[in-house]
């Protein structure tokens, strides 16, 4: 037996597991201290009433012989795919229900999609970045090219025609920086991908946080994108599904490599390795897209955006430099002068009992930066602000 030795090239533990371990050690040593967690982007608002109602009803259906469901369609139930297709119309985008694959979240599909691409492809990944893009490619021993995201380009790297890439990762609104591409910028990426015969893996997990109609919520708002992009979406942050698990991936029919439609490959992969998302969860997900569900999730998103506004206001008052927090739940700030990301992590944990995420955990360009999330409870955010101000 031989193991996949590529796993040995990975950091010993996943970023958020390392942080959780450090925080657990701290709380063990300081059991009376109230630690405020603004680290991992996990939601705190409960599921909205439309969702829990659907969960209850679907659970009851499962207990009745006539309405019980066994295996469902691997691509997801039509009732959910239809409703997602309608949602896309709201972004002035046509995505057919058959181009939508219901998933258990963007993270799994972002990793799993690599099954349909040769290990010989070169991937282009921004730095800093959501660690999943890097780790899943290391696991497959793919060559990774990094593109610099830094304050000179507002953390929004643009295509460089001197670089030949096959698979390009873009995330907008961005995790970890909160930066958002404009339509013109995304058009440059689409043009580049088409010119290079490359594919864009577009992570739109935070699209619901965009509050400006002129900013793209889907890459398919850009002409030509259906020929070069797969889009990954998640209900985790949109509707509090981090523990409930549901998302969707769009693989357009027009997307081809030579004569081969990627849709067929992904369908083949999913039908072989995936048995679909539970019926109950898909019913809950469909409830999000009803007018009532949309209204309720918007209230939660506004709550988080208000948290972000309070945090960014406080950082401004403190004279700290940051980006994000406007169309994103993430605020990307520069560490206190001269501190590395992990030094700042320790400093905030020890002195203010606040947990954030060290920027260097997202890549070398993240060194000297720190990420705060706006997913906390209001009371905690207000307390964190008090503590940050007291540190000055
Ligand atoms: C994060 O904190 O970056 C996210 O929670 C990670 C994720 O969505 O998997």
From TrEMBL:
Binding residue positions for pyridoxal 5'-phosphate: 71, 106-107, 130, 175, 206, 234-236, 245, 275
Binding-site positions, substrate: 14, 41, 107, 130, 175, 275, 371
Phylogenetic classification of the source organism: Bacteria, Bacillati, Bacillota, Clostridia, Lachnospirales
Pfam short name (any one): Aminotran_1_2
Record's protein name: LL-diaminopimelate aminotransferase
Annotated GO biological process: lysine biosynthetic process via diaminopimelate, diaminopimelate-aminotransferase pathway
UniProt family annotation: Belongs to the class-I pyridoxal-phosphate-dependent aminotransferase family. LL-diaminopimelate aminotransferase subfamily.
Catalytic activity: (2S,6S)-2,6-diaminopimelate + 2-oxoglutarate = (S)-2,3,4,5-tetrahydrodipicolinate + L-glutamate + H2O + H(+)
Stretches that traverse the bilayer: none
Molecular functions per Gene Ontology: L,L-diaminopimelate aminotransferase activity; pyridoxal phosphate binding
Pathway the protein contributes to: Amino-acid biosynthesis; L-lysine biosynthesis via DAP pathway; LL-2,6-diaminopimelate from (S)-tetrahydrodipicolinate (aminotransferase route): step 1/1
Keywords, alphabetical: Aminotransferase, Pyridoxal phosphate, Transferase
Subunit structure comment from the entry: Homodimer.
Limits of the Aminotransferase class I/classII large domain: 35-388
Cofactor(s) needed: pyridoxal 5'-phosphate
SUPFAM superfamilies noted in UniProt: PLP-dependent transferases
Residue numbers of N6-(pyridoxal phosphate)lysine PTMs: 237
Function text: Involved in the synthesis of meso-diaminopimelate (m-DAP or DL-DAP), required for both lysine and peptidoglycan biosynthesis. Catalyzes the direct conversion of tetrahydrodipicolinate to LL-diaminopimelate.
EC number: 2.6.1.83
Classification via InterPro entries: Aminotransferase_I/II_large, DapL/ALD1, PyrdxlP-dep_Trfase, PyrdxlP-dep_Trfase_major, PyrdxlP-dep_Trfase_small
